[in-house]
Amino acid sequence: MRNNKDASLLCKAYRLCFFSFLAPIVLAAGAFAQASPETPYYARVNSFGFFAAYSNDSSRILLGVAQNRKLLDFGASWSRRLFLDRVVNWQYSGEILPVALESDPMAVIVQIQTAPAMVTSTYPYGPIVSCNTQPTPYSYIDPTTGTTYSGTQDFVCKGRRWTVGEAISPVGMQWNFLPRRKTQPFFIGHGGYMYSTQEIPINGAGSFNFTFDLGAGIELYRSKTRSIRAEYRYHHISNHGTAIENPGVDNGLFQVTYAFGR
After folding, report:
1. Which residue has the higher pLDDT, 215 or 23?
2. b/e 219-252 (16+ beta carbons within 10 angstroms → b)
3. Does 46-105+162-261 carry CATH code 2.40.160.20?
4. How many angstroms from the chain centroid is the CA of residue 85?
5. More confident of the two residues 187 and 12
C-alpha cells in the first residue's frame, strides 16, 4: 500500500517538474511570438497602382523641339522589389497607359498683301512646331501682267487638336530611399512606346513614337500595404527618325499614383 502511495507521489512530482519545466518554454514562445515585430520596412514585394498625369505645356527642355503641347494620361503600374536594405528599396517598374492624350496647337496662314493693294487672306494649315513664329516677307512679279505683289506671310495658332493614343513602358526602375520611413523620396525612369490615332506632333511625324521619362517624387505610406506617390517627370516623345519629320516633344509631367500590394 505504501509502495502505491510512494509511486503516486513520485508520479505527481514528475508531472509537476515536467509542467514546471515546460510552462516557461511555452510562455516564452508565446511572448516571443507576440513581441516579434512586423517588418520595419515600408516596402511591398509587389505593388500595383493607378495613376493620372498631366502636362500643360512643352518646351525645349532637353531633346524636344515641338512647343505648346499638352499631355493627359491615365494608366496602371506594377512594380516588383529587387533589393532592399536600410538605405534603398530598388524595384522593377512597368506602366501601361490605355488612355494617352496629346494636344497640338493648330495654325492658320495669315497673308497680308501690301502691294499692289491691301488684301488680307487666311488659309487653314494644321499643327505646327511652334506658335512663336515671325512674319515672313514675300515679293514676286506676275510674269503675265508684270505686276509686283508683296507683303508678309505668318503662321498664327488658332485652336487645338487632341489626339487619342495608348502607350506602354515595359522597361523601368524605381529607387525608394529610407524605406523604414512612411515618407520616402524616390527616383524613377521608364522606356517604351506610344501609338496614336493621328500623326503627332505635326503632320509627317508618324503615329508610332518612342517614349522615355526620368523623374523624382515623394511616396507617402498610409499603411504597410497602401501609399500615394506624387512626382514630377521629364517626359520625351520622338519617332527616332523613323518618319519624315521628327521634332520631338519634351514635357514636364506631374503624376499622382495610388499604390497598393504586399
Report:
1. 215
2. bebeebeebebebebbbbbbbeeebebbbbbbbb
3. yes
4. 25
5. 187
Cα-trace Rg, the chain: 34
Average pLDDT score over residue span 115-136 = 93
pTM of the model: 0.81
Q: Would you list the domain boundaries of the chain?
A: 1-36, 46-105+162-261, 106-159
Over the stretch 140-154, which tens digit does the pLDDT of each residue have? Answer: 999 999 999 999 999
C-alpha of 67 from chain center? 20
How crowded is residue 128: how many other Cβ atoms within 10 Å of its Cβ?
23
CA angle at residue 22 from 20 to 27, to 5 degrees?
100
d(CA 136, CA 34): 80
- Between 11 and 122, the higher pLDDT residue: 122
* Residue pair 199/228 in contact by the 8 Å Cβ criterion: no
> What residue has cell string 501609338?
195
Its sign, for the CA torsion 242, 248, 156, 149, is negative
Stretch 29-33: mean pLDDT? 41
Name residues whose C-beta falls within 8 Å of residue 44's C-beta, 6 or more positions apart in sequence. 81, 224, 225, 259, 260, 261, 262
